[in-house]
Design brief:
The complex is a heterodimer of chains A (557) and B (262). Chain A is an all-alpha fold and 557 residues long. Chain A contains 22 helices and no strands. In chain A, helix 5 runs antiparallel to helix 10, helix 13 crosses helix 14 and helix 15 runs antiparallel to helix 17. The two termini of chain A are 30 Å apart. Chain B is built from nine helices and ten strands. In chain B, the strands form two sheets. A six-stranded mixed β-sheet of chain B has the order 6-7-8-3-9-10, sandwiched between helices. In chain B, strands 2-1-4-5 form a four-stranded antiparallel β-sheet, covered by helices on one side. In chain B, strand 7, helix 5 and strand 8 form a beta-alpha-beta unit. The termini of chain B are far apart. Classes of the chains: A mainly alpha (557), B alpha/beta (262). At the A-B interface, helix 3 and helix 7 of A face helix 2 of B. Chain B: Pfam families: ABC_tran. Chain B: One of its GO terms (molecular function) is ATP binding.
């Protein structure tokens, strides 16, 4: 096992740990094992990429954080007053660190495995807990450094060494504070709900983070187009409640020598609050928290009032859409699986959100400079901008292949044991379920907004776009490897890369959009196009499902 | 029966509840050196909870538990050096290799790295999984993982052992080896808590059987004592009688009947 640089650095402070009665050597060994295991783990921010060579994944994710850090670094170049600038920078940094903490380190914070493995051994709880806290802080600090590294460099050149020193020191404080806040948050959730609920909430926060990254990149370019307003600043009591002001104040105090009582008080808070939080965390939060963690693996079974209705609707839909008993069964199975697959949602939801916002991002780019809202609406109503919905179609059509991934992929042995002659009902049922559960609702929402913007007359066009989208979806299905639903682990390389799928989707959707656009100039062109696309889609539907068991890719069971 | 010396483990009025559900309702027990205790009972009777309390995995119990004279409520950890534990559903750091995991565990007991490494390798070889020493545990079969757990519980040569279904997943040959190991360990004066649902193994291997039901001890004695008292020939039957279960035939019949429903 390799000896990590961090640990060697930590050795210099070993006397500190001995002082608080921690068995330093044991703690060091636990940390070494944890760090080794982390190298073999895949962080959230990278799960969209198929390459997961062990060892490099964490470094690769640091690179992604680094790109984000690039923008924070750029921000530092903007000639705002220092105090205001640092507020902005710390706002972004704290948000990112908090989000990362929740998405990637919840597993560490909520881990009961450590306890089960280590407690029967002669290791005292204090040592285990200190190791856990250090483990989290080491990683958070690394990530924080990659997010704020450039900002640090820019500050160093702009404001000198004092800036860098304060900045580094504060980053450690921020990490401690974030760990404290996150555990308080989890504790609150665990006090009221069971472990399953908490896992759901963590999942939603992970999804939010992914969406933020995805949509954020589209917006960041625009931020710098904003006119730089002159910022005036008046101290107010409520500033004391915002953590970014605490951390920004020392810069004003030490670099601009702005030693008003206001800045001194805030600077003290920057030091006192995280320290107090860490002490509180070690003495009060951890013992209480660990007790609550026992709840994590329990889930109370509550009768869900909505569930009975939902089951009825689901059954009715299955009866309407599917013909054989097998297909119906798989329709229901797929829908149920889709609602419970956390990891799949983590990949799927950001894509769906992206599909939802993409046309509007596009629109806001085109009409950004118009004067009034009524002008915009009039313009929209007379334009062919509704073709922007094809952007959503590109993304939605390519999501369907995701159903072959699952965190419970080992359960897929069941398909092979079933006495079914052909895999077709399985695949048909699953695909229909996916379309009904995700693609249609998202599409309807987009369509609704566009009808509100452009008027009822675009409804035939929207129907056409929908048919074209399903056509592309089937085309991708036909071209891709034939895989059963929930059949493989996320990291296993797919038949076609996501990139390839998106490219095909883009190409064909683009082509459809072009034909669509041209035919709008022909009388009844859209109706003609609907008939044509519907025909192709039907043929594709029949052709694509000409599959025998032999063509189905065997999973790694 | 075996009353020589001081009790290795002594439990007084042990009670424990999760919320409103009372798991243990006053356990009293003295365990002496060299005993192999067959610790049996129906699912949810409180077997695992007792063991977890002794190991300090579960807090919030009432009563007194002493291990080697040390009250575990005092928060000391020294007594854990003398304990080895194979849990029923065991968690391991399975992204590590056996080499990494076992040396880590050994060092947690304060053992020299080199010594653990040597011992671990030898023990792995004796269990016929020497070639897996540098493979990640995630790639192990169920039996291999079980062997690893057994090794990790014995590496530091403990005096008291807690085995919870230790045979699960082991092949017949390995089972024979392991039973032999247990008998020899007991002969050396080590104390073994053996918890299992496989009654004929418990019957054969235990020097003393403790049956727990609804959080209380309902029987305590050697197999001969129990079978005399209950007038039953096998531990399985004693188990049925003492836990008040005699409907197995009826339930099986009903089960078969349901299967035939068209």
């Amino acid at each position: 096992m390799k000896d990590f640089t961090v640990l060697k650095l930590l050795d210099k402070f070993s006397f500190l740990f001995k002082k608080i009665e921690v068995d330093y050597l044991v703690m060091r060994r636990i940390l070494q094992v944890q760090l080794t295991m982390d190298e073999r783990r895949v962080p959230t921010i990278l799960t969209n990429q198929k390459k997961t060579q062990s060892g490099n994944s964490f470094k690769a994710s640091l690179f992604t954080y680094g790109i984000l850090g690039f923008f924070i670094g750029l921000l530092m170049l903007v000639p705002f007053p220092l105090y205001y600038l640092m507020n902005l920078a710390f706002g972004l940094i704290i948000f990112m660190v908090m989000a990362t903490m929740i998405s990637d380190f919840s597993t560490v914070l909520l881990d009961v495995k450590d306890k089960n493995i280590l407690l029967p051994r002669p290791v005292d709880a204090r040592t285990i807990n200190t190791a856990k806290l250090l483990h989290i802080v080491i990683y958070l600090f690394t990530i924080t450094m990659s997010i704020s590294g450039l900002a640090l460099l820019v500050g160093l050149f702009k404001y000198g060494v004092a800036f860098a020193l304060i900045f580094m020191f504060e980053l450690v404080l921020i990490c401690c504070l974030v760990v404290f806040f996150t555990s308080i948050l989890y504790m609150a959730i665990l006090s009221f709900f069971d472990g399953e609920k908490l896992k759901d909430m963590i999942n939603y926060i992970q999804i939010l983070l992914s969406i933020f990254m995805l949509v954020g990149y589209q917006f960041i370019g625009r931020i710098f187009n904003l006119k730089l307003l002159t910022v005036t600043f008046h101290p107010a009591w409520w500033h004391f409640l915002i953590p970014t002001t605490w951390f920004a104040a020392p810069f004003s105090l030490f670099i601009e020598h702005n030693s008003s009582q206001y800045f001194i008080a805030l600077s003290l808070l920057a030091l006192v609050v995280p320290t107090a939080a860490t002490v509180l965390y070690m003495t009060l939060v951890i013992p209480y928290f660990e007790g609550k963690l026992q709840k994590l693996n329990s889930s109370s079974i509550r009768a869900n009032r909505g569930a009975a209705v939902r089951v009825k609707i689901q059954r009715a839909a299955a009866n309407m859409l599917c013909f054989s008993r097998m297909e119906k069964a798989f329709y229901k199975f797929t829908q149920n699986m889709l609602s419970n697959e956390r990891k799949l949602k983590l990949q799927l939801y950001p894509q769906l959100t992206f599909a939802l916002v993409m046309p509007f991002l596009m629109l806001s780019g085109i009409i950004g400079n118009r004067v009034s809202w009524s002008d915009i609406l009039v313009n929209l109503a007379n334009s062919k901008l509704y073709l922007a919905v094809y952007l959503s179609a590109v993304i939605l059509a390519s999501t369907a292949t995701m159903i072959s991934s699952s965190e419970n992929y080992r359960g897929a042995w069941i398909y092979r044991v079933l006495p079914t002659e052909s895999p077709v009902p399985l695949l048909k049922g699953a695909l229909k379920a996916f379309i009904v559960k995700y693609i249609i609702p998202i599409y309807l929402l987009i369509a609704l907004i566009f009808v509100l913007l452009c008027g009822l007359k675009i409804i035939p066009d929207l129907i056409l776009i929908f048919i074209n989208m399903i056509m592309v979806l089937l085309l991708i299905f036909k071209l891709n490897r034939k895989e059963l639903p929930f059949y493989r682990d996320f990291q296993v390389t797919q038949g076609m890369s996501r990139m390839g799928i998106t490219l095909i989707s883009m190409l064909v959707c683009g082509l459809c959009a072009l034909v669509h656009l041209l035919l709008t100039y022909v009388p009844f062109g859209v109706v003609l196009n609907i008939v044509l696309s519907l025909g192709i889609t039907m043929v594709l539907w029949c052709k694509s499902f000409n599959i025998t068991w032999k063509e189905i890719v065997k999973g790694a069971i | 029966m075996n009353t020589k010396g001081e009790a290795v483990v002594s439990i007084r009025d042990l009670a424990m509840s999760y919320g409103t559900h009372q798991v243990l309702r006053g356990i009293n027990l003295n365990v002496f050196q060299g005993e192999i205790i067959g610790y049996i009972g129906p699912n949810g009777a409180g077997k695992s909870t007792t063991v977890k309390i002794i190991l300090g995995l579960v807090d919030g119990f009432k009563g007194q538990v002493k291990v080697l004279g040390e009250d575990i409520a005092d928060g000391g950890i020294e007594y854990k050096r003398k304990i080895g534990y194979v849990p029923e559903t065991a968690e391991v750091y399975d992204t590590l290799t056996a080499y990494e995991y076992l040396t880590f565990i050994g060092e947690m007991y304060g053992m020299e790295f080199k010594l653990v490494d040597q011992k671990a390798q030898k023990l792995m070889a004796l269990f016929d999984i020497a070639d897996m020493y540098h493979a990640r545990i995630a790639s192990y079969s169920k039996g291999m993982k079980q062997k690893l757990l057994i090794i990790s519980s014995l590496l530091h040569n403990p005096d008291i052992l807690f085995f919870d279904e230790p045979l699960s997943g082991l092949d017949a040959n390995s089972v024979m080896v392991f039973k032999e190991i247990m008998t020899d360990l007991a002969a050396q004066g080590k104390t073994i808590f053996y918890s299992s649902h496989i009654m004929d193994v418990v019957e054969k291997i235990s020097s003393r059987i403790i049956l727990i039901n609804n959080g209380q001890i309902v029987a305590d004695g050697s197999f001969d004592q129990l079978s005399q008292k209950c007038r039953e020939g096998s531990l399985e039957e004693i188990f049925n009688q003492l836990t008040g279960f005699n409907r197995h035939k009826e339930i099986a019949d009903e089960f078969i009947a349901v299967l035939g429903e068209a």
